[in-house]
Each structure stands twice: as C-alpha cells, then as structure tokens.
Amino acid sequence: MRLLERENNVMAIETTTLEWPDILTIVIYFVVVMAVGLIATFKANRGSTAGFFLAGKSMTWLPIAGSIFATNMGAPTLVGVAGSGAATGFAPVMFEWHSTYMLVLLGWVFVPIYMASGTYTMPEYLKKRYGGKRLRIYYAIVQIVLTVLTGISTEVYAGSIFINQILGWDVYLSTVLLLAITAIYTIGGGLAAVIYTDALQSAILVIGTMVLSIMAMDRIGGYEAMIERYPKAASSEAYLKQTLYQNASCGFPPEDAFHIFRDMDSAYPWPGLTIGLTLLASYYFCTNQTIVQRNLSAKSVSHSKAACVMASYLKILPFFLFLWPGMISRILYPDEVGCSDPDICNEICDNQNGCSDIAFPLLVLRVLPSGVRGLMLAAMLAALMSSLTSIFNSISSVFTLDIWKNIRPHANEKETLIVGRVFGICLIAVSIAWLPILLLIRGSQLWDYLQSISAYITPPWVVVFFLGMFWSRATEQGAWYGLLAGLVVGICRMGIHFGYASPKCGSTDPDVRPSVFTEVHYLHFAILLAGITFIVDVGVSLVTKPRKKHQLHKVTWWTRMDYKEPELTEDEDADPEDEYIPPEDLSTMKNVYNKVCGFNKPPVPKLSAEEAAALRVKMTDIHEDPLWSRVCDINAIVAISVTCFIIGFYA
Fold first, then answer.
1. Calpha distance 312→636 (Å, rounded)
2. CA-CA distance, 238 to 253, in Å (whole number)?
3. Which of 27, 31, 123, 240 lies 20 to 30 angstroms, CA to CA, from 89?
4. Which helix (H) or strand (E) holds 12?
5. What is residue 477's DSSP assignment?
C-alpha cells in the first residue's frame, strides 16, 4: 500500500506487506470458499440446461437472498459507495435503499410472470411476449456489452484498487489470479455452485465490513464527531486555495452533504434520485439476467418472494458498512482521499480527477490490526468473487440460450453446456482487454461511471418490459423502433461523455463540454430517454397489428394465471428437444472428462408429449401456499416501511 507523507512538497511512497495472521486469514478464506464451491460443483445437477443455468429450480429462499446481496454488493459497489460517500456525503445511499422497492417489484410482479412463461433468460421472455427473434438477439447483445462495460471490467478494476493499495500488486497480475480462482467453480459448477458460495461470501462481507465500520467510528469519536468533522475534511491544498482566493470551494465536501434529496444543480438532484433512479434500478433488479436468474432458480414463487424481502433487509446495511467508512476515511486522511490538485492526485492514486475511490482500502490498512486486516481483505475478495461468479454464469446463459441456440437451433444439451463454459472464458479475456480503456474514462468516482453508462443504455429496455407486461396492445414493431430511437439518443449522449473531459479540480481551463451535457444530469437524461422510447413505442404499436389473445397466455400480468400455453406463429419455432441417446461404453479418460464436466449421469429417455406437458405445468406453476404468501406480504410491507422511515429521516 502507499503511505503518503507531504514534506517539502515531496511525495514519499512506502509499501506495506501483510503479516502472517493476515495471510493465514486469507488462506483459510480461500480454502473454505473453494471447498464449498467444489462440493456444490460436484453435487449440483450440471448435466442439463435447467441444472446448470437454473440450479434445477431447487433453491430455497435463504441461499438466493445471500446470492442476490453478494452479487449486488460487488467490489464496484463497496469501493464506489464508499468513494462517493467520501466525496459527496449521504446522497449515494439512495442507490442502495431504493432497491428495496425494486426487489419487492421483482418478487411480486416480474418473477411470477417469468415463472409462468417458463422463461430461462430475459431475452427469451421478450421472444415469448412479442414474438419474432430480433428483440431477443438484440437484448442478448446489449446484456453482454453492458457486462463488459460495467460488469467484469469494473469488478476487476475496483478489486485491483483495493489489492494495489494493500499489497502493491500490479492490476493485471491481481486480475489474472482472481479470475482464475473464480472461474474454477463458476464455469464448472453452474448456478448451484455460484449461489452457495455467494451465500457464504455474503456472511463474510457483512462481518468484515461491520468490524471495520465499528473500529473506524470509534477512531474518530463516534457519529456526532463524524457529523462535525466531515464538512471540514479537505486537503491542505484546498485550504490554501481558500485562503488565497477567499471563496474557493474546490476540494471541500458539499454544503448539503448530510441530505439525501438535493437541489437540481447538485451531484445527485432529487428528481433524478426518485424518478431517474427508478428506471436504472428497475433494469438492474427486474430485467437484468444476473439478478433475475437467482429468483428463477427458486422452488416456488414464495421462496422467490422471501429471498427478495431478505435481500431488501440486507440492502439497508451499506449505509453503515460502506458509506460511513468512506466519509470517515476522508476525515482521517483528507490529503489523500480529498486531494484537490490534479498532479498530487496522480501521484497518490494514478488518477488526476481525484482519489475518493481509495477511501475504503486506505481505511482497511490504517485502522484495522493485523489478522483483522486479513479478514477485511477476505471480505473484499468475497465481494469481488461473488459478483464475478454471478456475472459469468448469467451472461453465459444469455449467450448460449439466446444467441448460440439461434445459430444452432438443434444443438444438444452437451454442446450447449460446453459452449456456455467456453464463452465464460472468452468473456474474461474481453473484459481484461477493456481495462486500459476503463482506466482512461472512469473519472474521479467509479460509482458515477457505472450509473451514467446504465443511464445511457438501459431505460428503453425498462419501457419495453413494462409495456409488454401491462399493455396487451404493445407490439413487436413498437418495441423495436422505440428501442432504436432510444439507442440513437443514448449513444449520442455517451459519445459526449467520453469525448469531452471534465475540468479538473482547481483547473483554470474553461469547461468546453456542451450545455446539453453539463445542464442535464445523467439521471435526468434517463427520464428523457425513457420518455422518448415510450412515445415511439406506443405510437408505432397503435398503428401496427397487435398479437392475438391466444398468443399472450402466461406472458403478461393479466394472463399469468392462464392454464393454456401461448400459441406459436408460423415464423416462431419451439425450442428443440434433445433426442434420447442410448448409453455407450466409454474409455477411462472419457469417463473422467464427463465426471469433471457434469456429463456423467445416464441419459434420460425422451418424455412423451403428455409427460412433457405435465412436467411443464409443474415447472410453470405459480400458485402459493396462503400462509407463506401472507408471511411474505407482511415482511414486504415491513421492509418498505422501514426504508421509507430512514429515507425520510435523512432526506
């Protein structure tokens, strides 16, 4: 890690190594996680599509809840929320607390429709609802591209910040080692292995960050001390400029740091945090394969609902476990975390735009004692690896089932599973290649980079999903042209974002960015983008032929309870069924290969039409036990009420 001391304007960098208790803690962590991952890998049903991609639809609510939380609380969230908290105060917590409403929406509205329609992937649902193939393929490509832009690459980058600050390792060395370990049980074991390891890593993450938060708060003298000292947490350069220029505010926390809802010209304006954020969160929690896939693996709708409620309770914690430590880190180390001179920031963290993203790792190294520091590093690795495993599995599912199956519609189960695993490896390589570009365009706060990219791409898809579920008149042509309009507008805004550099703190250079960019916050742009898509979608749908009623069975909110399956049109093909292949005598090496890859189980004879129909009815049943349904409803109301109270308290 870098310990920075300012003496006579000379920056001294010292590297600190972990002590043996830290190393022992990390080794134990890896042993336990690998053991759980490998056990789940070899016990899981990995020899079928439903087994590998949906864990055989056998998961219960608690592992799913842990997996949702661990997947969402990846390294970018941990580093990003702490960094944004260090830079701006309380407002970024809305990205966490707002998810309570979206998780309830997922469990009570979206998942019942997905389950009823027998959906494996989100692009597949679009095909079932709208017909045709182009929406399915387009959305599959979008999800893969977003995974590279805001998924794996940012996970690895955030993890590298942490590891570089603590161990001094090169970003690419850290990346290769972490991805290699993660890939072993992710690519081999499928969703079941991912969910069980995620649940374990959620516990490690919560325990580790809780220890850090308590010790950091104790270091500064408690909550009241944090409130008093944070507004003054600025670097020596910022104080010098304030003295020289009297009214200079660059380098100081904002005056409204302790408010969530802020003015229109702030970093997080209140309309954006209410309406714009709803669009981004709806995409992430309700239509994103990475999150939804966990719920689709549930044994029943009630298990999915219970998992969503439990995850919403856990989402209250980041305010205390991530954001507070970020603010405390700036209080303790203002010259590093709050640096305001581009040249000094570049020496501290290799980023001229600011160093708030090192707030969390800096706190870990300087506050925690030996041994506990290793626990926190293990927690950080848990956050990184749990998100990576989830991304690998879900995006492999999208590519295999929505793109490869379209290229080779008669591919059998074995080919499908091999392609999914190989694509996971290819995805790793592409994401590593994107890292140098990410380092150039990330800006001062990783969190804002993530959210802005999402704001430029995802709102049109939220509109298409909502209209498809709640308006039976929505057509495939309307959705297609609405998405194209949204794509053009979103890409134009993204081009401005990447094409113009923002003025650095303390710089006298004029801001040459177009006013359409500087005066329209990315969260407000998300609202505008959704509005454009909505108008085009509705307009085109009204002048084109809608789908017939018998084609909408089980794919909308109003038809989710229908007993009949939707009828296919002439241009739509049913998913091909695998033919029965009789057992054959295999060599020893072939048997070992099948065992490792999960192909060792004997083939199951092809079901008759009646048997297949009965099995499908069971798999798509969304009826609930009245008692457990009521328990879930009550807990959802409690979770929403608690979230509303704390938002109102800090608003």
1. 9
2. 11
3. 240
4. strand 10-14
5. H
Q: d(Cα 538, Cα 581) in Å, to the nearest integer?
A: 48
Beta bridge partners of 6: 11
Ramachandran region, residue 600 (left: φ > 0; alpha: ψ -120 to 50; beta: rest): alpha
CA–CA separation, 285 and 110 (whole Å): 10
Any bridge partners for residue 14, and if so which?
Answer: 3
Q: How far apart are the C-alpha atoms of 292 and 298, rounded to whole Å?
A: 10
Can you tell me whether residue 404 is helix, strand or coil?
A: helix
> What's the burial of 563, exposed, middle or buried (CB within 10 Å: 0-12/13-18/19+)?
exposed
491 in Cβ contact with 222 (< 8 Å)? no
Confirm if 253 and 230 have CB atoms less than 8 A apart.
yes
Q: Give the other-Cβ count within 10 Å of 414's Cβ.
A: 17
- Residue 325: name the closest of 292, 348, 359 by CA: 359
The one-letter code for the residue type at 518 is T
Q: For residues 150 and 438, what is the distance between their CA atoms, to the nearest angstrom? A: 9
Residue 90 to residue 253: CA distance in whole angstroms: 11
- At a CB cut-off of 8 Å and minimum separation 6, what does 303 contact? 59, 60, 61, 64
The mean pLDDT values, 10 residues at a time, for the chain of 651 residues are: 38 51 78 70 50 57 85 76 88 90 94 90 92 91 82 72 66 66 56 68 82 91 92 84 63 87 84 90 90 86 93 92 92 88 79 80 83 74 68 79 83 74 75 67 62 90 96 95 95 81 63 74 92 97 93 92 72 50 50 49 52 63 88 94 92 77
Structural tokens at position 483: 């998405």
Give me the amino acid identity at 609: A
The residue assigned the tokens 């990315």 is 522
Would you kindly state where each structural domain of the chain is located, as residue ranges? 3-574+608-650
Residue 503's Cβ-count burial label (10 Å; 0-12, 13-18, 19+) is middle
Handedness of CA 532, 537, 538, 539 (dihedral sign): positive
User: Which residue, 478, 91, 506, is CA-closest to 319?
Assistant: 91
- 627, 237 Cβ separation under 8 angstroms: no
Structure-block tokens of residue 236? 């020596």
Q: What is the pLDDT of residue 184?
A: 60
What is the helix (H) or strand (E) element at residue 453, kind and residue range? helix 446-457
CATH of domain 3-574+608-650: 1.20.1730.10
Supply the pTM of this predicted model. Answer: 0.82
In the block, residue with structure tokens 């969160």: 281
Q: How many CB atoms lie within 10 A of CB 168?
A: 14
Separation between Cα atoms, residue 45 and residue 35, nearest integer Å? 17
> Which helix (H) or strand (E) is 555 found in, with range?
none
Which residues, in sequence order, are bridge partners of residue 5? 12
Concatenate the DSSP letters of all residues of 300-361 into one string.
Answer: SHHHHHHHHHHHHHHTTTHIIIIIHHHHHHHHH-HHHHT---HHHHHHHHS-TT--GGGHHH
Question: Which residues are CB-neighbours of 400 under 8 A, at least 6 positions away?
Answer: 53, 416, 417, 419, 420, 423
Distance CA 20, CA 577 (A): 55
